[in-house]
Every structure is written in C-alpha cells, then in structure tokens.
Records
---
Amino acid sequence: MGAARNPDEHYTYEDYASWPMDERWEIIHGAPYAMATPTEAHQRTVGEVSRQLSTFLLGKPCRAYIAPFSVRLNADDGDDIVVEPDVLVVCDRSKLADGKGVVGAPDFIMEVLSPSTVKHDTIRKFLLYQSSGVREYWIADPEEKFLVKYILRDGKYMATGHSADDASVPVDTLEGCAIDLTLVFAE
C-alpha cells in the first residue's frame, strides 16, 4: 500500500479520487480508514450474495454492485463520507449519474466481517448507514456463519438474526427476493 494518510487531517471525496487506485480507503466524517485485504471466506460470501441478488435483479430496474465501488453519502454536505460496501443495491438510477459510484444512500448494503473490521462495521458504519437512510443493512460473519439483518423503521434499525440453516432470508427492500444462507455459508 502507498503512503499512509494522516488521521488528523480532514479528507473529502476530492482527496479520495486523487489517491492511487491500488489503495483502498474509506473516509468517514473526513477521517481516513484503510481497508483490509479480504480473506477467501469474505470473498466467497460476497460472491454468493452478489450472485443471488444479481440473478434476482435480471430485467429489473435495481442493480447490485460489489466493492470496490464508492458510495458518497453526503455529497451535498461536505462530501467527506466515502465508503466501499462489500455488496450494495441501488434502485434509483439517478444516484449513479456521475458514472464513478453512488451519490446518496443505496437501498441495500451488506458488509462482511473480518477480525479487523468488527468495530468499523458493527458500530461506525452501522450508525452511519442508519443516519444516512440506508433502508436495509446486513452484516455477515462467514467465520461464525451468522447474519444480522437491519431494517430501517422510523429512523432506527430493527434487527433480526439468521444462521447458516436459513434457506430463505427475505430482502425487505426487494419485493420477492430472498437469499439462501445455506449457499452463502456453504463450505
């Protein structure tokens, strides 16, 4: 990875866009966070959820994306929040107008935990996605074979837990869509 970012400096999307493409960073309220290299279990989880979502969305207006794909959550107000969710779904195509990522809150986001990202995904990003209006947020743990699904209701996330035995977990933001966790967490 290239030069470290100064944690005391305030960064924006303009800074992020100028950094080398082989470096993966997120910016949350101006603070830089280096992205960890994904494990095989992480990539397997991302790939299977993305495959199931993309198959369901064929011929529909929504689209699924995987990281790296930048999401600017406050482009109209400081532009100092840029995240790269593991999996995301966007239904409002106007949020893709710049061709470089998403401007605004995606409809669905899934993050896959790794030992180095637990706090980042379960606290920092949880609060960020909730306050930004991300309607559905999933946190998958491929090691424990467990998923927590959060649905935004009246500005707060409501949680349900799901295990590797759940063959049909509904994606609430996509009517008729369900993810088979037996495939997601298969060895």
---
Amino acid sequence: MPTIAILPVKSFSTAKQRLRDGLDPAQREDLALAMFSDVLSSLGLVPEVQIIVVTASAAARALALEQDARVVQDRETGHNAAAVLGIEEAINRGADRVLLVPGDCPALAPAEVRTLLSRPLPPRSVTIVPDRHGAGTNALLIRPPDALAPAFGPGSCRRHLDLARSAGLHAEIVEVPSLALDIDTAEDLDALGNLPRGPATDRFLSQLAQC
C-alpha cells in the first residue's frame, strides 16, 4: 500500500486569523484556499502517495475530489483531532505509513517529498519535519500510522521527538526546505518573498501587490 498523505484543512472563512491586521476576511479566505490548492496539487504529483483530505469546507472538498483524493468530514475540534480522523481512515485503507502535511506550505516541492519518502527507515519510526524556526512541526511521517498520536502546536518539534522516543520508536528530525515555511503571519508572507511557490498562491500575491 502506498504511503497515504493526510491533509487536514479548516474552513477557509476562519483560517489565518493572525493575518487579520494586514488582510481583510475575503483576502484571508482567498489566501488559505490558494495555498491549499497548491499543496494538494503538489502532493498529486507524488506517485508514491494517496491523499486524504480532512475538512468541513465545501470548497476544500470540491478541490480534493477533483484531485481524486479521499475526503473525510472534519468535526472541527482542532488540528490534532482532524489528523487523527485522517489516520483512522488511512488505517482502514491499509496504509503502511502516513505523512501528515499542512495546507499552508505553498512552496512544497514534489521532488522533496519523494526524497523524504525514499529514506530507509525501520518498521516503527517517526520522521519530524520542523518549521523554519525549528520549534514547530510542519510534517510528520509515521510508521505504522498509529505509532504516534499527533501533538501539533507551539513547541511541537521537540514534543514529537520526546513522545516518539518514549514510545520506543526510531525518531529523526529531517529538514525539508520547501516544507519549512508555513504561512501564519505577515512575517511569514514576507519570508515567502521571491521563493518558488505554487501558481494559485503566486496569483494571489500578484493581485495583492496591485491593491
């Protein structure tokens, strides 16, 4: 069974609240939708993975189905709870391992995902991909899927490492440049700058610059 990539996506209308000082509600919604579209498209170019999208958003559901992704209805009780729903579905589908990916890393490069997945790992292992600050977690590769309960949030990189080791799992922190930048703040948007990014996010930023 190929690796299953799990993409939890909250409703776009409530996304990116930390950008509210610079973007109005419609702009925040458009940005969240654009980034999700780019992440989904990038994952769709990785033949080693199947995709599960966990969401309550009709727009996200429609995009996911266009990409032949499996959609799981989110109860919107938090990112970790959504990730667990995706893991449960992946287990039901016979996955050997899962890759948890956020929907707000618009620079995600399919080649780097393939490189991450090609690394030899023991049967019970967790690979932690940190954010650009080294504090948060921007992706988790878990084998088997239920070996570790996701614990995203502030300081989650060290937390995931400690939890994995406590569970007797082989644990590594692996940097993936195109997954290092997730967009939550104005500083993150500035850091995106001229970095390569997906076409939908690029169009949004181009339109924003003209406002």
---
Amino acid sequence: MEIFTSFQDMQQPPTTPILTMGNFDGIHRGHQHIFRLVQQRAKELQGTSCVLTFDPHPQKALFPEKEFFLINHMEEKIEIIRRIGIDALFCVPFTREFAASPPLNFVQRILVDTLHVREIYVGENSRFGSGQEGTPEQLALWGETYGFTVCRIPPIRHNGSIVSSTKIRQLLRAGAVDQAADFLDRPYAVDGLVVQGTHRGTTLLGYPTANIDVHHELIPGKGVYICHVKWNTTLYPAVINIGTNPTFQQKNTIFVEVHILDFHADLYGQRITVLFRKRLRDELKFPTYQDLIQQIAQDVTDTQAFFRHQ
C-alpha cells in the first residue's frame, strides 16, 4: 500500500482511482464493507482502490477542549487498512483553515485536479467542508459536472444494530469488549510500553503483573478482563485489571496491569499489545489482601477455563 501524507509526494495521479473518504475511526464492519466495495470496483476497472482520511480527527482539531477518545491511533489505523489490502492511502492534514474552506474547493482541488477521481463511495450520512455543506447529494451533483460517480452507502447493521464508531466507543467505555469486538470484527486492542510498577503483584500477591503505559486514548472501563497479550508475534493468555487499585487506597490514577499466565520473561521496556476478549467482573475493594489474592486466583481459573473452550 502506498501512503501519502502530502499530495506533493505523489508523482502522478493513481490509475482510475476508486475512492472512499472519511474519518474511519475503528475501521469497523461498516467501514470494511465500503472498503470491499471500493476494492471490487477497482478490480473490475483495473484501477486503484483508494482511502482518504484525515489527521488529526476533525473533532480533535475543531473542539480540542471536549473529551473525545479515538478508537485507533493513526499508526494502527494505517496498519489495519494495509492488512485489508487497499492500494493507496491519503492522510490529509486537518486544520481549522481546512475545515472552513467551502466543500466545492476540496472537490475541485483534491478530488478532481489532484486525484482525477473516477468513483467515490461515501456513507449516506457523511459530511465535509464548511458548515458541513458537503453532503452525499451535493457531491453527486458536483460529480455530474466534473465527471465522477458517487455511490451512497446506507448504514450497515449487524445483529439488528447500526454499526458506528460512536456506539463502539460507548461499549468500550462501559467495558462491553465482546460486543465492541463484534462490531469491529476483531478484538479491541491497546498497545504500550511495559514500565516499572509497585512490584506488589510479585512480592505481596504472588501474581506478577506487567504495568502498561498505554499508547491508545480509549481504555475500556474499569474492571477485570480476559485477554491475549501479543509480544513479538506470539499470543499469550492473560488476565488484566484496569482501575485505581482501591484495596491499596490509590484513588486517582488509572493503572493497566496484566498478569500473563505461565509466563516468566522480563518485559520491562518492551512494547506489548493487549487484545480484550471478555469482561470478568468489576474492580472491587477487598477487606484484606488475602481476599484479593483469593479473587485473583479465581480470575486466573476463569481465564484458563475460557481459553480451554476456545
């Protein structure tokens, strides 16, 4: 896949570009459906399947004061799109000036003069340009003038529900990682560096943990989860706690601590990825350390049982 962060990097326009454009946060089942349509049409025309997305996300650029957590960071988004098999990815810098420009300027300057786009696939609720005046209907009218076709894609439903990035964010914040995975068509994953912790897992509880400085913005809600840890290319069964360690009176800082089953390697300074499988329980405050140890033992037993039946 060719990746362009500036149109000046492009030596010539793609051959018969079939394009979809949007934010694509999460790259969920709905996005993947559009990507497949783009790929199929590009194959039919012996053209180039293209994705145009924006960096940063418009919400980040326009409303930096508002709480808004992305499902994917940009490196992860690029890698997922690469794995899907898109031919060319255009990451357009998004600024307030860019957002204020009339949508027709974007159509003329980028879609027509730069990319020479042949067909465009967009969600029927998509918007772009100042005042969000760039609707799919208006885009189709401009297509008639400038010689490209617009295909409007209705929202995709899965198990009776419309798939959306907003819904996935809500599910993850609520800890419903299995439902989110169903919409994403893959487990939700976060990555980060293993950093020094308090060593209580090893010295006090008997269950050593890797403390993760998470790279992602969106961390599932507080609780205990069954997960896989990916280190290098290997997946290891694990149980992870997200929360404030209330048994130890630490109320303000969110910790992400993973216990990898039957694992003894030194991970300090290593980058690992956590793939969430299922939520086990809420984070609880225990009256004694022994009660906590007993519960951790049960969490490990439940995790082992989960993986035995996979």
---
Amino acid sequence: MQVNRAFWDERVPAHAASRDYAVVRFAEDPGFLSEVVRFDVPRLGDISGLAGVHLQCHIGTDTVSLQRLGASMTGLDMSAPALEVARGLAVAAGAEATFVQAQVYDALDVLEPGSFDLVYTGVGALNWLPDITGWAGVVSGLLRPGGRLHLREGHPVLWAIDPLRSDGLLAIEYPYFETEEAVVLDDGEEHGTTYVETDEVFETRVTHEWNHGLGEIVTALLGAGMELTLLEEHLSVPWEGLPGMADRGDGEWQLLDRPERLPLSYTLQARRR
C-alpha cells in the first residue's frame, strides 16, 4: 500500500492538469460531468437526495459529478495530494462534497457505519486491493439496509491479458483469480509513466496489484449480506488498455478487430439486505 500510495501521490499534479480529467471544465460549466459518470448515468438511475460515498475517489472528478446528479457525496482516498486537489475542485465547482483520507479497509473507522444509501466505485480501483472479501465487508458495513453499491470496473479478463504484446494476440499472462502475493509491475521505462497525456517525468515506476475474478467478487458481496441486482459486461473501457484499440469518441475505447472476443469492463450493482 505504501508503494502504491507513492506511485499515485506523484502523479496527482499531472492528472489534475490533464485534459483527460478536465478539471477546469467543472468550474466553467455547472452541468459538466466526468466521462466515467456519464457512462454510468443510464444504470445509476435517480440518485437525488441519496447519501453517497465514493471509495478510492482520486482527485474527485467523479465524486463531484455524482453530487451534481443530486447525491450528497463523501469521497475517500489514501492519497493526501489527490484529496487536496479534490477539495479545490469541489470549491471551484460549487459542489458540497466532503473528502476523507484513509485506506479502503479503514473506511469504517473514519466514516459512520450504516449511514450511506450509495457506495460508488469507479474504474481502476479494485486492482489496488489485496482482499476482495474484506472490501465487500466494508461496502456492506457502510450501507444502510436497502442501500446499494454501484461498481464499474475493468474486467478481470482484461487485467489478466498481457498489454505489451505487439502481435495482436490476446494472451493471458497474469492471474485471473485473487492471489496472496501481489503482481509486481514495472512499466519498463527509464522513468515512470501514466495514462494521461503529460510531459511530466516520474520517479516511481513500480506498483503492486491484485486481480479478482467475477465469481470471487459476487461471492464476496453475497457473503457480506448483499444481493446482486445487475451484472453487465461491456465491450469498452475508458482508456486505451491494449494495442489495437480505437477511441469511440465518447471517452470509451474498444478493440478494432472482433471486439466481441473480449469483455473489457463490467457494471455490477448490489443491494444490502
């Protein structure tokens, strides 16, 4: 977790300045929503008046977007620099959102258990967590009875594929199932990289990540007192995750060649019994 936090802390300024996160647009346009949340809107339904918590909120663009849809939002993240940007974004956007620094597994120590109607988790979050059962317990513990989880995430099949192949083959290289030991990844460059366009040079290159199979995620939620209400797999994901992908023009990327071969992301919704 310390290695990963250092990785994310260093990339916050580049993300905040990038056009991908469009931080300035939130201040300029009171109706602007992040591309991630725009994708979620048809499945989220009406969230006006709900008390929501966004786990692993990063710099808060999705958190503020959910507040603009009518929810009273709290964002939680382990990165102090990310939360500093998120608080500034909320002020600039005129959004009443609260931000709390903590690891996901400590959320029940810093937030009131059973006080939320909605737990929201965005794309690229679960792969930083070593224990999906522990995560499911946190989600359930934060929700009131009848409260719901909305999760959109990169598909575990996508996380298992080698993204560096140049021969066009989709080859399983990394674990699909949760493993005790992390997959230690090094981006292989002289300096670290990130997924936004930037000229910044980063010192941190290594991350520790874990995959979780769909069955493991669903089983963990069921065991934590949740009931599944939606599971939808998608042909797209909001970044260029593999060679041979094309930008659809709506913030989503998918394979050019036979996209039906591969689920790239999924949306899961569940309700606390």
